[in-house]
Design goal:
By secondary structure, this protein is an alpha+beta fold. Helix content is about 45%, strand content about 25%. It is built from 23 helices and 24 strands. It has a 6-stranded mixed β-sheet with strand order 16-20-21-19-18-17. A 5-stranded mixed β-sheet has the order 8-10-11-13-12. Helix 2 runs antiparallel to helix 3 (about 60-75), helix 3 (about 60-75) runs antiparallel to helix 4 and helix 12 (about 285-315) runs antiparallel to helix 13.
């Protein structure tokens, strides 16, 4: 059988299982008394082991098998949970992620895991085996099917743990007597150890059976306890889905496993959902298909603009109606396609709890990471880019934001620091706030470093507000760290963080209260492919300015323009802002100055500027196209778009203009 056709599904599902293992391990570490987390981890590890073995990835299968042994000992109370156990499990997940990543990149998924396997084996070998602990029993697919069929017929299913007295000499004989009682009451579906092992006394002093019966728990308990040398009997009802429910569940899982990216289908009313519970609500579609669909729709948007232009020129009522209807329908289609491409930021946030845990341990700190709004959605293209900036901000918060436990206690704080990562929608933007309750930013220290490095002069330093001082840490190579850290230095590389976010059409601001913490707030556009823009005219050329960067438009008289150090400026709502003549900047030919200035007021973070153009054309949705490899690095131009009349308009990068 050719396994290549299943490779993409294997990679996708392996990542989902590993993420679940990570999440459950983090929760279990906080509450080691709740073995429900361990059962969840075991199920994911077991599934991953089976898939890996089937696909021929032996190192993956071997490591997950050894993880199962440790997890099995934990959930059966045979192994005390301590730091070494958790660290070994986390280390195993790291290795598994490396192997899956290797497979996704075309590799063989092989990794030298001998030392890690030995560590897991040593943990299990050193486990304090409890005399009264029973072996675990696995509910494989066959068992589940049998239980489902019997549930349809009205039978009960019980998991029965029988503990023989430790002084029992003929364990196999006593077990045989127990089995005889059970088989008179119903059917034994499975046992652990196996019947053969029990007959050969290959068990400690306890065993488990799964029994299907019409008898009550009380009657079973009494019947088994009548057998000599039985110390205790524990009976638990097995929750079983009926066969019809299992069919629905299996069909849903199969449908989900053959696709790649989940796309929500239109929701139904509660009445319809109850009446048709078996209908699937989601399908998975390869992301490449969504990209192709988006590219085709972008062309449709361009043609829509062209048709609207032709309709205006011909002034035909029937054509106007048709074009208006097509515009309305394509607008609805645009909304659907953009929503299909939306991905929750959870896909990025999921890796952070584990990262913060490891960094905290390395630095000897106690830190709790709180995540809010993980279901907030962003376009996939934006999601792909924000991971690294957030990682850098988190590492800085852990290293230089949160203080050491002793220092926090001395300042009257809880020894455990808190980092809060919050995402939320506002208008056509998504905001991501990263806030810590650490030491905050020392204004004087930042100023002194900026002066020492020649970033600002003494005269400028005296005029800066707190926010402007905090902005200085975004300067290239700026750092207030006293020594280089393996983790980070607050400020090191933050210029890269800012540049990356601004390249996405976003912005990042800082607020801090020394001694109480800092907050980084990131603003991002919902999508990058189709944007709303203001079209402006400059001589014979047209340009597009993204609406997300625009505050307002204004008409400015020449007498209102002032000059400061050779730079044109105006008074805008009580603040002096610079004027940038785009015709001069882009060397627009045949440029003639009129009797007034048409100005577009734009912003970048806390900074504002006015852009001088000839006239305003109007607002329009445009498709952002890259300039490609032929025109790389053109200053202040982020791309181009095709207008309704077929002409090309360059898209101005307002962030690059404001320095």
């Amino acid at each position: 059988m050719d396994m290549n056709q299943y490779l993409e599904v294997f990679i996708e599902e392996s990542r989902e299982h590993l993420q679940n293992v990570n999440d459950q391990l983090m929760r279990f570490e906080k509450n080691t008394d709740d073995l429900g987390y361990v059962n969840e981890i075991f199920r994911s590890a077991h599934t991953l082991k089976g898939m890996s073995a089937t696909m021929g990835f032996d190192d993956l299968a071997q490591l997950t098998h050894k993880m199962e042994n440790v997890l099995d000992a934990v959930r059966n109370h045979q192994l005390d949970v301590h730091t070494e156990v958790l660290d070994a499990l986390f280390e195993s997940v790291d290795a598994l992620e490396i192997m899956v990543q290797s497979i996704s990149e075309g590799g063989d998924g092989q990794l030298d895991v001998k030392l890690l396997v030995q560590k897991l084996q040593r943990i299990v070998a050193e486990e304090p085996v409890a005399q009264h602990a029973a072996s675990s029993i696995e509910y494989d697919e066959l068992v589940q099917t049998l239980l489902s069929q019997t549930a349809d017929q009205g039978f009960n299913a019980f998991e029965i743990t029988v503990q023989l007295e430790r002084t029992c000499l003929l364990k196999a004989a006593r077990a045989y007597m127990v089995f005889d009682v059970l088989e008179q009451a119903g059917d034994v579906i499975k046992s652990a150890p196996t019947v053969q092992d029990i007959e050969q006394e290959k068990f400690e002093s306890s065993f488990i059976v799964i029994l299907v019966t019409n008898e009550s728990q009380e009657k079973l308990q009494a019947s088994i306890m009548e057998v000599s040398e039985v110390e205790s009997v524990k009976i638990a009802a097995v929750p079983v889905k009926k066969e019809t429910e299992m069919e629905e569940l299996v069909s849903a899982e199969v449908a989900a496993a053959i696709q790649e990216v989940t796309v929500s289908a239109p929701s139904k009313s509660p009445v319809e959902e109850k009446r048709q519970p078996s209908n699937n609500k989601t399908i998975r579609v390869n992301i490449d298909r969504l990209d192709s669909l988006m590219n085709l729709f972008e062309e449709l948007v361009i043609d829509r603009g062209r048709l609207e232009q032709i309709s205006k020129e011909l002034n035909n009522s029937e054509l106007d109606e048709t074009v208006e209807r097509m515009s309305r329908i394509s607008g609805d289609l645009q909304t659907i396609i953009l929503n299909m491409r939306m991905v929750p930021v959870e896909t990025v946030f999921n890796r952070f709890p584990r990262m913060v845990r490891q960094l905290s341990k390395d630095l000897g700190k106690q830190i709790e990471l709180q995540i809010v709004g993980a279901d907030t959605e962003l376009d996939r293209t934006v999601i792909d880019e924000i991971g690294d900036p957030l990682v850098h901000l988190l590492r800085n918060a852990v290293d230089h934001g949160i203080e050491m436990p002793q220092a926090r206690l001395e300042s009257g704080k809880n020894e455990k620091g808190t980092i809060r990562l919050k995402a939320y929608h506002s208008g056509n933007h998504v905001f991501i706030d990263l806030e810590d309750d650490g030491a905050g930013i020392n204004r004087e220290k930042v100023l002194q470093k900026a002066l020492d490095r020649g970033i600002i002069d003494g005269k400028t330093a005296e005029t800066l507000t707190d926010k402007q001082v905090y902005e200085l840490i975004f300067a290239s190579g700026f750092s207030t760290a006293e020594q280089i850290s393996d983790v980070s230095g607050r400020g090191v590389g933050l210029d890269v963080v800012k540049n990356t976010i601004e390249s996405l059409g976003g912005s990042v601001t800082i607020d801090s209260n020394e001694g109480y913490g800092s907050r980084f707030s990131i603003q991002l556009p919902l999508t990058l492919s189709i944007i709303s823009a203001l079209l402006v005219q400059m001589s014979e050329e047209r340009y597009a300015l993204p609406l997300s960067s625009i505050i307002e438009t204004a008409i400015v008289q020449p007498k209102e323009v002032m000059h400061v150090n050779g730079q044109k400026v105006i008074d805008f709502r009580g603040a002096i802002i610079p004027l940038i003549d785009l015709k001069e900047l882009f060397t627009v030919p045949n440029s003639v100055q009129g009797d007034h200035y048409s100005v577009v007021i734009v912003k970048k973070g806390e900074k504002t500027a006015g852009l001088i153009v000839d006239s305003f054309i109007g607002q329009q949705e445009i498709v952002l196209k890259s300039l490609g490899h032929y025109l790389p690095g053109v200053f202040a131009i982020s791309g181009a778009t095709i207008l309704g009349d077929g002409q090309v308009a360059l898209i101005i990068d307002c962030n690059a203009l404001i320095k």
